Amino acid sequence: MKGTPGPWYAHQYYDPKTLWMVTNNPYPDARASCVRDFSELASDIVEADARLIAAAPALLEAIEKETADHKPSVATGLPCKCFLCDAKRRARA
């Protein structure tokens, strides 16, 4: 899978109204790969977006565990088309 490996953490920096960052380090002042800098977004959505993105690796892991036994259709050979399997495919794209 491409991208910064999880887990990810949402940290509030400097200006509490605007600057949230999602990093791969649990310590806010340590060096880390910045997954997303939210400084350009409106303050009312910044924290919620940062926390949701930080949860993405854990959410994908939960989906993968839940769909581990989902198999392709016996009749068509096509992949499972349930909502969770579709979400897993979109997350990996």
Plain-language structure description:
- With 93 residues, the protein is α+β, with helices and mostly antiparallel strands.
- It has three helices and three strands.
- Strands 1-2-3 form a three-stranded antiparallel sheet, with helices on one face.
- Strand 1 and strand 2 form a beta hairpin.
- Helix 2 crosses helix 3.
- The protein is elongated.
- It starts with 8 loop residues before the first strand and ends with a helix.
Search tags:
93 residues, alpha+beta, three-stranded antiparallel sheet, 3 helices, 3 strands, 13% strand
In a few lines, what is going on in this structure?
The protein is of the alpha+beta class and 93 residues long. Helix content is 35%, strand content 13%.
Question: How many structurally independent domains?
Answer: 2
- Given as residue ranges, the uncertain stretches (5+ residues, pLDDT < 50) are none
Number of helices: 3
What spatial form do the alpha-carbon principal axes imply? elongated
Care to count the β-strands?
3
SSE arrangement:
Elements: E1 9-12, E2 20-23, E3 34-37, H1 43-54, H2 56-66, H3 83-92
Antiparallel strand pairs: 1-2, 2-3
